[in-house]
Specification:
This protein is of the alpha/beta class. It has a single domain (about 25-170), classed as Glutaredoxin, CATH 3.40.30. The chain contains five helices and six strands. A hairpin with a 5-residue loop joins strand 5 (about 135-140) and strand 6. The longest helix has 19 residues, at about 1-20.
Length: about 170
């Protein structure tokens, strides 16, 4: 009886975890990012990750309704200013349902990095976005090396150190 109860508990736990765990939780650690069809704010097709090999890419999924996203934008602009000439590219991927909400957000918070739109939300789904903002740091070889969910100012130094390390790596 105990063995059956233990087996039933284990099966239930696995079922629950498979429902709440993101499909692509395995992204971190030398995994290429999923292919995404993104568009610029003016509706033109954006480039793909493959064309950015050789650069460290800070990919940030955000939305206008997200309070931590408001706090993350100055940090991302600072990163871009500080490391752009060393090979860092920051890309903000907006997930708003209404493009005008994103444009209003950006009118109040101008940025020095590209903003693209995931209109189908397929890119966010394939990356396994489960929190806002969600950041994926891709190394020069084109592999996701770090995932960071949420934004708290106390964590910025760790992110900066990681970016500096990735920028120093040889391909």
């Amino acid at each position: 009886m105990i063995k059956q109860t233990s087996l039933l508990f284990s099966a239930s736990l696995i079922l629950c975890l498979s429902v709440v765990m993101p499909v692509r939780a395995h992204l971190e650690g030398n995994t290429p990012p999923p292919h995404c069809q993104l568009t610029s704010l003016d509706g033109k097709s954006a480039g793909d990750w493959e064309g950015m090999k050789g650069e460290v890419i800070y990919v940030d999924f955000w939305a206008s309704w997200c309070p931590p996203c408001v706090k993350s934008f100055p940090f991302m602009s600072q990163l871009m200013h500080e490391f752009k000439d060393k090979g860092l590219k920051v890309i903000g991927i907006n997930l708003d349902e209404n493009l005008e909400d994103a444009k209003g957000f950006l009118a109040k918070r101008p940025v020095n990095f590209p903003i693209v739109i995931d209109t189908s939300k397929r890119c966010a789904q394939d990356f396994g976005v489960i929190a806002m903002p969600s950041t994926y740091i891709i190394d020069k070889r084109g592999l996701v090396r770090h995932i960071h969910r949420g934004f708290r100012t106390g964590e910025t130094e760790e992110l900066r150190i990681l970016i500096e390390q990735l920028l120093r790596e040889e391909i």
